[in-house]
């Protein structure tokens, strides 16, 4: 068989696989007509697919034909151009959602490995026509999302401009993981200039680019925990820890993940770690949860609780007479 014949057979077998993935059952004559070959050639191509590990089943009689059977070892789906574009655009839209964002992005990076370069421009154009409503995260440029996702996947350095107290500066990082919160996308990365782990908001990045320099992965903190602790506590001038006498599941419903870290401490207790601009503010938020609690840290917050308790007790026990306004 010549090289041209081999390529022709390969393309035909791939087309056959695509047809089997489109519909539950095909008869032999239907497949032969679609492929422009004889039923005997269809049978040979079906055998080739079986050799490759695809469980193609054949049944006789009325309603019978060829069908692709289920199996845990089923090789990846075959998508034509239109299907690949539609899938990528749908995943880009899903990556901006509030619940399935990370799963959509993981699937998108897998698709990106096999998406032909000629289709990427169409994906970007169509993704620009996708919008959403009803809250959720602020929009993030899909190209930024994909550039950083590829850099994480391929373990190559990335660079971007990022605002700081002294203005916008260029950051050089080893990107590790993208993390989606209920409000924003974050990148956990090793900052090469600061020689430490940092988290960055994607919506604040500009001029994002992946570099060609590869890196060896370092021992990294848990991405979701690091980012959550950063946005809920470390960014604030004051941090506090509380032991709350309610289950972690109950408290997590009451507090957004971006506002506090809730750690399970038994069936009916949990630890809450949060930050705020003042200790009174974080204390008030925990007080309004409506559960008994204890202050674990810092010590000055325990003292502040005593002061406020005396003031509240005094306010509740002393009733001042109202002024007589009748003769006013």
From TrEMBL:
<dbReference type="InterPro" id="IPR028349">
    <property type="entry name" value="PafC-like"/>
</dbReference>
<dbReference type="Pfam" id="PF13280">
    <property type="entry name" value="WYL"/>
</dbReference>
<keyword id="KW-0805">Transcription regulation</keyword>
<dbReference type="InterPro" id="IPR013196">
    <property type="entry name" value="HTH_11"/>
</dbReference>
<keyword id="KW-0804">Transcription</keyword>
<dbReference type="InterPro" id="IPR001034">
    <property type="entry name" value="DeoR_HTH"/>
</dbReference>
<dbReference type="InterPro" id="IPR036388">
    <property type="entry name" value="WH-like_DNA-bd_sf"/>
</dbReference>
<feature type="domain" description="HTH deoR-type">
    <location>
        <begin position="9"/>
        <end position="64"/>
    </location>
</feature>
<keyword id="KW-0238">DNA-binding</keyword>
<dbReference type="Pfam" id="PF25583">
    <property type="entry name" value="WCX"/>
</dbReference>
<dbReference type="GO" id="GO:0003677">
    <property type="term" value="F:DNA binding"/>
</dbReference>
<dbReference type="InterPro" id="IPR026881">
    <property type="entry name" value="WYL_dom"/>
</dbReference>
<dbReference type="GO" id="GO:0003700">
    <property type="term" value="F:DNA-binding transcription factor activity"/>
</dbReference>
<dbReference type="InterPro" id="IPR018356">
    <property type="entry name" value="Tscrpt_reg_HTH_DeoR_CS"/>
</dbReference>
<dbReference type="Pfam" id="PF08279">
    <property type="entry name" value="HTH_11"/>
</dbReference>
<dbReference type="InterPro" id="IPR051534">
    <property type="entry name" value="CBASS_pafABC_assoc_protein"/>
</dbReference>
<protein>
    <submittedName>
        <fullName>Putative DNA-binding transcriptional regulator YafY</fullName>
    </submittedName>
</protein>
<dbReference type="InterPro" id="IPR057727">
    <property type="entry name" value="WCX_dom"/>
</dbReference>
<dbReference type="InterPro" id="IPR036390">
    <property type="entry name" value="WH_DNA-bd_sf"/>
</dbReference>
């Amino acid at each position: 068989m010549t090289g041209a014949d081999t390529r022709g057979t390969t393309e035909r077998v791939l087309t056959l696989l695509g047809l089997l993935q489109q519909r539950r059952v095909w008869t032999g004559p239907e497949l032969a007509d679609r492929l422009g070959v004889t039923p005997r050639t269809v049978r040979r191509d079906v055998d080739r697919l079986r050799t490759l590990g695809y469980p193609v089943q054949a049944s006789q009689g009325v309603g019978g034909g060829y069908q692709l059977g289920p199996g845990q070892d089923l090789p990846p789906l075959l998508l034509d151009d239109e299907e690949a574009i539609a899938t990528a655009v749908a995943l880009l839209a899903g990556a901006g959602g509030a619940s399935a964002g990370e799963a959509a992005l993981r699937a998108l990076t897998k698709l990106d490995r096999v998406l032909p370069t000629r289709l990427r421009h169409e994906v970007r154009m169509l993704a620009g026509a996708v919008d959403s409503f009803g809250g959720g995260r602020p929009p993030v440029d899909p190209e930024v999302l994909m550039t950083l996702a590829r850099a994480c996947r391929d373990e190559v350095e990335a660079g971007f401009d990022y605002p700081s107290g002294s203005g916008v500066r260029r950051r050089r990082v080893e990107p590790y993981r993208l993390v989606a919160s209920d409000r924003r996308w974050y990148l956990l990365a090793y900052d090469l200039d600061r020689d430490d782990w940092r988290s960055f908001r994607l919506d604040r990045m500009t001029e994002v680019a992946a570099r060609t320099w590869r890196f060896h992965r370092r021992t990294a903190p848990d991405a979701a925990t690091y980012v959550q602790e950063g946005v809920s506590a470390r960014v604030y001038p004051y941090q506090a820890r509380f032991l709350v006498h309610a289950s972690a599941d109950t408290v997590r419903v009451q507090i957004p993940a971006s506002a506090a870290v809730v750690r399970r401490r038994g069936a009916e207790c949990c630890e809450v770690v949060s930050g705020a601009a003042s200790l009174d503010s974080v204390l008030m938020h925990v007080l309004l949860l409506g559960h008994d609690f204890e202050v674990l840290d810092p010590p000055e917050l325990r003292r502040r609780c005593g002061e406020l308790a005396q003031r509240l007790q005094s306010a509740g026990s002393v009733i001042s007479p109202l002024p007589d306004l009748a003769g006013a």
